[in-house]
Amino acid sequence: MAVTETQSTTESICAKYNWNRQQILDNALNEIKTHKLKISKDTFRKRVDRCLEKHDGDIIDECNDVQDNALDRISRYEDENVYLRKQLSQIKSENNKLRMKSYIATEIAGLLKEEIATIDFDKFHINIKKALTGENHLVMPITDVHYGEIIDPYAINEKNSYNTDISKRRHIELFKEAVSMAQLNNCSTLDIPVLGDIFSGNIHDELKETNEAPITKLIVDYYKFICGAIVSLKNVFKEINLHCVVGNHSRINPKWQSKNKSYDNYEYILYSFLKDKFDSVDGINVIVSDSTVLFANIGGMTWKLEHGDAYRGGSAFVSPWGTVSRDNFKDYMIYSELDKKPDAVLMGHWHSAGWLPMQGNNIPIIEAPSLVGPGEYSMLNLHSAYNAAGLLVVVSDGDIYSQRIVKLNHIR
Predict the structure, then answer these.
(1) Beta bridge partners of 366
(2) Which strands make up the sheet holding 399-407, listed edge to edge?
């Protein structure tokens, strides 16, 4: 393109934005691409400035009254100032929204803490007469509970049904099976990786509209239930360890974020309350991760625990294994520099059960299934519909000794 043609194009672009320099530069890359200008953004800016100078000069030549010309230029600069003030106002508005969310989260945490301090735990008993013995560990991940979500069985041809009552009964069934497996494998220590998406959350409008109760009520209800379960299980196990990381469904912000990801999450509030409750109880340890990845020592093995939403291999539920395996190897190289080398990786998020080796390393990546099971989203979008289930793993002498999938979809 000739120089004169480029100048002509630049002038037409300037005229398009009414010679408003700020608006022109804000749209520079798009205009360069649209008009196929083989110039950099910086070169484009210089040509825009020359055009603006020429534009002002033309006005001076055409106007006999210099004062009118000055007023015209002032008017243009005022337009730019109005535009800039509008942008600044939008930025301030977004900042205020974020600050308000932070205030709301803090207020919610305070109010919940007052309520939780006065409530009674749910009571139920594991049918066993004496405490378990042995040196082995039983690993029982709790992940993708989606507590509060209602799944209409008739909307998905009765593939699944779900509400808070069903969720509790599935939990209890998993706890009973855990005790039985612990008896068979000499496990006196129960490790519970809590891997996130405990609550259905408010990240989608349809969830806000169809959840069984507001998030604050669900936090209190689940806290009462899980505390009662832990107290009951402590009568069976010599030691119980909860290893807690957040998921993506319970986040406060509608969009996935990196900064403050753990803190801007309702699960972090739940985990913190659990830690406060059991910190003074012998034999019950609650570890709350400030990071989305937690390295835990379980049965002489280093476990890398995470929710799993950081891996973006295709859409959710769609064969993530290639990407998960590859990116875990990247993580392995990163964390190796910090002397954090896992012997096993455990995650949720994908609502299915699986076991695969890390690419480039013979380290197992274990995918824990969901307690919620398939729903309208996964079924109607033609994703995988792995049934609701739990996972139990026996760790002995620094190695994985046995594992079992506990089917839970029949509990409705």
Answers:
(1) 346, 355
(2) 284-288, 239-244, 187-194, 136-139, 389-396, 399-407
Which residue in this structure is represented by tokens 């007023």? 71
Q: Count the neighbouring beta carbons within 10 Å of the beta carbon of residue 371.
A: 28
pLDDT digits 0-9 by tens, 164-182: 999 999 999 999 999 999 9
d(CA 173, CA 373): 15
What does the pLDDT read at residue 130? 72
CB of 199 closer than 8 Å to CB of 145: yes
With beta carbons less than 8 A apart as the criterion, state whether 140 and 185 touch.
Answer: no
**Residue from 257, 229, 241 nearest 305 by CA:** 241
Residues 70-127 pLDDT 10s: 555 555 555 666 666 666 666 666 655 555 455 455 555 565 666 666 667 777 666 6
Whether 272 contacts 288, CB under 8 Å: yes
> Burial level of 62, CB count in 10 A (0-12/13-18/19+)?
exposed
How far is the C-alpha of 227 from the C-alpha of 117, rounded, in Å?
Answer: 12
Give the C-alpha separation, 80 to 19, whole Å: 9
Whether 317 contacts 383, CB under 8 Å: yes
Helix (H) or strand (E) holding 357: strand 354-357
